[in-house]
Specification:
7-stranded mixed beta sheet; 15 helices; Rossmann fold; 2 domains
Length: about 425
């Protein structure tokens, strides 16, 4: 019997996808972003079609032969409707409960996963906020309370709460750590919890990304813990990109492509298959930025040096702030095994994610960013209106949990659950 779960603050589904790949059964997703909800619906459609040996419909969709509505028409309505497009708030939570109640049909829920939007706990967010007190007034600081409301309502056997490293040090106006408050509220409502700092690159993800993972167990059950085992990174970043067509900044490639046979690392991470590949498209860049990109790549290639903004020729310097974020132009180093962290700011511009191949001279594409986040190539990142939108895809990818890391977390939990229930 599959372990059931719901995903709160689900984003486009990175955490959920890892649990699905590990054999868990998703009953509902709750997410406020409309585009991300369409990504979730399309992903749920994908899994349903694969289970029912109807993958050709998904291929037709990726290839543009059928529309999104036509794809969804092939899927039972309850699968599509399991994605709830709502912001979790005082005004909406009862309605969300009602929708989830209808989905559960009095079944016991095994697991809740998710992580409230993390920008308010982010060290970068706090550091860049001029107002005294940083981001203490940001309402997102308190979204964890809604997560706990779901624990109280559904009393799942277990939960997984994911967030940024800054959660451990962020404080409220009274000086109390939010992390301590969260653990106190969890305990008060009948759950034991353990927290771990996880660095994704230690577990086979080609990205330096640290996160806090809280694993919770209902008080009447044997507590479970997180047991992750180090995995070696098996390919350089350039190798993970090498099978994709070489393109230039602003290139208008076809909506879907067929890539060459890739390196072993792509298959180890379960990224590559025979489905058409989407969103391998580059945003355009002006000549000034392209010249900066060339300089940044050359500095890395000729001495493993990162570009400091103040070292650029004066004619290329247009930013007034020359004391903070002086590394705002950064190469995704092709000869390393792991990139720097992919974050949602990649939706604003590509300066912090310059492609390592100087011949292509551009920032990375959504598909390349998705590979760094270990999303399978068949993962479709949707827009709200059904039209292709690179910035929307970048935002969803940057906000996500790496799929391969999520899968290992899920596999660890499944093993511990089996031991505790045997």
């Amino acid at each position: 019997m599959k372990i059931t779960f719901i995903d709160l603050f689900a984003g486009c589904g990175g955490l959920s996808e890892g649990f699905i790949q590990a054999g868990f059964d998703p009953l509902a997703h709750v997410e406020m972003d409309k585009a991300a909800c369409f990504s979730l619906r399309t992903r749920m459609a994908f899994h349903w079609l694969i289970r029912h040996k109807k993958a050709s419909f998904y291929t037709d969709y990726l290839s543009g032969k059928i529309t999104r509505d036509e794809l969804y028409s092939k899927i039972p309505k309850h699968i599509i409707n399991s994605v709830i497009n709502e912001e979790i708030s005082d005004k909406t939570i009862e309605n969300i409960f009602t929708q989830i109640d209808a989905i559960l049909e009095n079944r016991q829920l095994d697991l809740i996963v998710g992580g409230p939007p993390c920008q308010a706990y982010s060290l970068i967010g706090r550091g860049s906020t001029k107002k005294n007190g940083g981001m203490q007034d940001d309402k997102r600081n308190w979204l964890f309370k809604y997560y706990i409301e779901f624990l109280i309502k559904y009393k799942p056997k277990y939960f997984v709460f994911e967030n940024v490293l800054g959660l451990l040090s962020a404080r409220d106006k009274k000086g109390k750590k939010y992390f301590d408050t969260i653990l106190k509220e969890i305990s008060k409502n009948g759950y034991s919890a353990v927290a771990e700092i996880v660095s994704a690159d230690l577990y086979g993800v080609p990205q330096n990304r640290k996160r806090v993972i809280i694993i919770g167990t209902r008080g009447d059950l044997t507590p479970i813990k997180l047991h992750l085992y180090p995995k070696k990174l098996s390919a350089r970043i350039s190798d993970l990109f090498a099978d994709l067509p070489e393109i230039q900044a602003g290139d208008k490639t076809k909506d879907t492509i067929k890539a060459k046979k890739g390196c072993k690392g792509l298959y180890d991470l379960n990224l590559k298959d025979d489905f058409p590949i989407t969103l391998h498209k580059s945003r355009p860049h002006n000549e000034r930025d392209l010249e900066i990109y060339r300089i940044a790549v050359e500095k890395w290639n000729n001495g493993h040096l990162r570009l400091n903004y103040n070292d650029l020729p004066a004619k290329l310097q247009t930013h007034r702030n020359k004391t903070a974020f002086t590394d705002r132009f950064k190469v995704v180093a092709g000869d390393l095994l792991a990139s720097h962290t992919v974050v949602a700011h990649i939706s604003k511009d590509g300066h912090y994610y310059i492609h390592p191949d100087i011949k292509q001279n551009r920032s990375i594409t959504p598909r390349e960013a998705a590979r760094l986040q270990t999303f399978p190539d068949n993962y479709c990142f949707e827009s709200a209106d059904g039209k292709e939108c690179l910035s929307s895809a970048f935002k969803q990818i940057g906000n996500a949990v790496p799929v391969y890391l999520a899968k290992q977390i899920a596999e660890s939990i499944r093993k511990d659950i089996k031991k505790s229930e045997d």
